[in-house]
Amino acid sequence: MSCGTLHVKIKRVCARKRSRDVLKTRLFLVRKEGRGGGRGAGSTKCLLSGRSSSTMAEHGAAEYCSDSEDLFGEYDSILEDTSILAKLEEVEQHERLRSENRQSFRTVQPSADPMSQSPKGPLTDSVLHELEDKAFEDLPPSQLQFQEQIQDQAKKSKLQVGNKTSTPSHTEAAGETNSEDGSRRHSKARRSVADLLKKTMLGNAVTPVGVSRTALLKEAVVSEEISVAMQAMETISAETPDLGPFFGLPSKVKELMHKLRGIQKLYDWQEACLNLECVQQRRNLIYSLPTSGGKTLVAEILILRELLCRKKDCLFILPYISLVQEKVRGLATFGLELDFMVEEYAGSKGKFPPVKRRNKRSLYIATIEKAHSLVNSLIESSRLDHLGLLVVDEVQTLLSSVAAEVKGRNRRKLTAGFFLLVLQLHMLGDGSRGAVIEMTLAKVRYMSKATQIIGMSATLGNIKDLQMFLGAENYTNDFRPVQLKEYVKLNDTIYEVDPKEENCFRFSRMLNYKYSSSMQKIDPDHIIALVTEVIPLHSCLVFCPTKKNCENVAGMICKYLKEDFLQHREAEKAVLLQELKAGGNGSMCPVLRRTVPYGVAYHHSGLTAEERKLVEEAYSRGVLCLLACTSTLAAGINLPARRVILRSPYVGTDFLKRSQYKQMVGRAGRAGIDTIGESILILQEKDRSMAKELVCAPMESCYSNLMQDDGKGILSLILSLIGLNISSSLQQVEQFLRGTLLFVQQQQLCVERSLWDTVQRCVATLLEKELITNTATHSPSLQVTRLGRAAYKGSVDLSYCSVLYKDLLKGLEGLQLSSHLHLVYLVTPYDLVPQCNPDWMVYFRQFTLLSASEQKMSAAVGVPESFVARKAAGQTVKKSVDLVAVKRMYLALVLFSLLKDTDVWAVADRFQLSRGFVQTLLSSASAFCCCVLHFTEELEELWPFKALLLELTRRLSYCVKAELIPLMEVAGVLEFRAKQLYNAGYKTLSHLANADPAVLCGTLEHLYQKQANLMVASAKMLLNEKAAALQEEVDELLTLPADLPPQQHQNPQLL
């Protein structure tokens, strides 16, 4: 057909959107007089879809009126005096006439090529020719779908015609066809195009306009990228390492990394690690780098990939409650933006088994013990395959408490399918907690063959053992974002550590600082000279061997600092002092009161949670420039410094291990701030040879701790294996143990007794404790008893299991409920009793303040008033009394006072205890109370404790007034901040979740924007979690039971 080219101009005739009838489309072409060119200037020649086809002749430019976005997307479209659908009919009519003429011509003059005589309908020859791909490149998805339907019809038509033999008789038959039938056929063909176009435009017209098109487009892009990433990851091979926009994740993740973390580009080693063939093919991997190398970021990317692409849950394990809460705050925003849940499992928080979510994935962030209980609950409920990733980070801290040669570190990652586990491998060598990690990993690996394990670690001496244990490959890199230079100081000389030197040390410089004779006596190690080289413009950490030494060093440094230090960020330090005082309810540590004005503080476990958080935040912002701290800081929260000074090569009385040394010096150098980091180890001449081995020797090896403490770990493991129905015989237990690190290292660790003998001995012990039974039928079968099930489900130490059961049964005989004292005594942790040395005068004074019923209860548990009175008077006590019960009652009185007073400072002063110990006691009691609650849930005879301990757990967890508890549930919100929020009108979780962070900053004193953002994000995540849990419960109630009996049809007359 010879149509002119039609030019399209888009203009808006009115800024105001018009109302529309959703059942009609108003697509009108506007005729412009005198603007046509060539023939047919005043008539419509052809349907246009955006660009005119090359077969159309010149036509005058027609102006179109459109909405702001596209021709069909909203209700505003094309305006003219006649319907475009009418024009479509006119075009098709023209095509029919042309086709009939062509057919008449073919009848008279048949072509030599039979195939050329195949009749083509008007839709296939011309109209569809105008609806080419190129004409639809810029149209919305709905119009593209319309175009594809038309092309499919055309292809089918051509295929059908092409399969026929074209002869002149075909034309004759066509000529004999009734004209009415032909008219119906043409009408039907026309309607197929017109109706489809009309239907598509009507669909667009009724599209809801309440949602922003920009938001919809962004959501579509993210969904598409996630889909592409999933397909790519399923078909990935070694030859195609590219997983998508951002390592298999949507580009929104990269934007969030930049916005929330300031990360624009990954380090080369991180990209290389994420692109490793074993990672892409989901094989196990252990990757080892120095401290501060960025290991955790790789794990977080893998977590996000598991959550978003593979739609599996993840578990992130951390050693301390404070670190768990910090990570919950840090990842809450990611969860809100990317639509997954972030759940806290620490202290008394966490549900076993976790809430089963149909539509969302969850990231569980847990302490080591909570993670083990979580994995047990998933195995018991047959839901372990829902878990896609487990990460254990920052556990190297725990190495400082581990004994001797069988300590090491190990962080693993289970890798093989749905579940990903990442942990710091050093933890495997950390005593009982290392044993718990080994049990957790072994269970996951044994029960889920589709589990991927990725282990993060510093350099280890026996990495081959870990590779064999996990069936993993190893990736090692010595990358550090900031260069680290290690030095040692002997007398007035500083030497650089150089393993290539014969003596391992190379002379660097002499100290240039003038000391007076009095100053030399107070500071013989020249700490003041070393720190004043960097502070206050740069930061410094001074690691000390004891907590008391931390406080002494901080005070000594301030004594000799110049007055100029007082003026550096003076206003911000004044604010910090106010916050410390408010956080202590008017009380303040005298050492901090003296040192903070100089920008100096100390950091150890003796601080309260409020003090520790304020000190860490002030140091991170640069308000404090120096911290005197113990080694625990090196493995805890990330607080780097320009210079790290090791006051002594000892922790307490034990000489440093290389792993501890590397953790401490690894804090030197702040990425993005410093160009270099320095560490200085202060030595005495007597320690020179041991220090040489410390700084130059290879890293220690990591060993299993299942055999530690006379096999306590393996005993607990075997009990849980039988209770979870993983093993029911000695042979099955042995088979499971083949997948442990202990089995790999049995030649080193099972010297006195073979592993098989150890298993038999442990089973005999469990039978003796009546935790398991042996049913002697045709084949012996091991089964767990009710007490054994309660022990492993409550995570109760088997050493105290029987004692706890007896105490609870005895408590039921005369349970005193007029106050909380009796319940508090029953949940006072047994493992803190050895650390308790009562002040007998304080004990007696507090005992006399008890009511008659409370004193009677004390006597019932074995602590009579007469005994306490005699001890307070300094008299000898001839009658035998259980000192464990006496000390436990003293700790119970401390907790009882805390529940009534809620002021840690006042209670610590009243009982002559350090505030840090009181805080530790409270945290341990709340966690143990939660364990006892789960313990009693498995024993029917202890049913009264279920309701009683539930509320007590909540009270002990927060130890504040009841109205503050909803706010304290938010990760990172402590008592002082909760009081601020409550007084400002934010009294509920919903209030805080819907707060504007900017308004919060203006309302609350000394609240920074970043803190407000994290607080609100955590509150939103917690609120979403609670709401989702309720919705899941509703859905579960309304779901048709799978085991519903068949329902017979009833008589309709009876209905």
| Overall number of strands | 25
What class do helices, strands and sheet pairing give? alpha/beta
Number of helices: 44
Largest sheet: 9 strands, mixed
Our estimate of the beta-strand percent is 5-15%
Q: Which outline best applies?
A: globular
GO cellular component, one term: chromosome
Subcellular location: Chromosome; Nucleus
Enzyme class: isomerase
Family: Belongs to the helicase family. SKI2 subfamily.
Report on this structure.
With 1055 residues, the protein is an alpha/beta fold. Among the domains are: 251-400 and 428-476, P-loop containing nucleotide triphosphate hydrolases (Rossmann fold), CATH 3.40.50; 483-563 and 627-696, Rossmann fold, CATH 3.40.50.300; 712-794, Sec63 N-terminal domain-like fold (Orthogonal Bundle), CATH 1.10.3380; 802-1036, no CATH class. Helix content is 48%, strand content 11%. It contains 44 helices and 25 strands. Strands 5, 6, 7, 8, 9, 10, 11, 12 and 13 form a nine-stranded mixed beta sheet that branches. Strands 16-15-14-23-20-17-19-18 form an eight-stranded mixed beta sheet, with helices on both faces. Strands 1-3 form a two-stranded parallel ribbon. Helix 1 (84-108) packs antiparallel against helix 5 (179-205), helix 25 (708-723) packs across helix 29 and helix 43 packs across helix 44 (1009-1038). The longest helix has 30 residues, at 1009-1038. The protein is globular.
